Amino acid sequence: MLIAVVTFQTLPKNRAAALAILLAEAATVRATPACKTFQPMPHPDDTATITILHVWDDVAAFAVYTASAGFVAAGLMLRPLMTAPPVSCRYSAKLIETVA
User: Fold this and answer.
1) Average pLDDT over residues 26-43
2) How would residue 47 be classed by pLDDT, with cut points 50, 70 and 90?
3) Do 94 and 1 meet the contact criterion of CB atoms below 8 Å apart?
4) How far apart are CA 76 and CA 43, in angstroms?
5) Using CA atoms, how far apart are residues 95 and 63, in angstroms rounded to an integer?
6) What angle separates helix 69-78 from helix 15-30, to the nearest 10 degrees?
7) Do the beta carbons of residue 3 and residue 88 sit within 8 Å?
């Protein structure tokens, strides 16, 4: 399983627009069979920061997503709103259990 935590900065006035772009793509990304989680989140204390939590079946599935037309299109809209390049921390994980 791959977990990716992507964080980027916008001007505070652009954060809502950046979140709207991500949320417009959310249903499509989540519908991808290998996607377990796609959750864009505004930082609760920093009006310029957005974090995206990704959980994918594996590295290969995440690579297919990052090469997809939807990812590229969203990036073309998001990059001009960013004040610096995004930081993506990627982790290999094993699910231990799901507690409901």
Assistant:
1) 96
2) very high
3) yes
4) 22
5) 20
6) 170
7) no
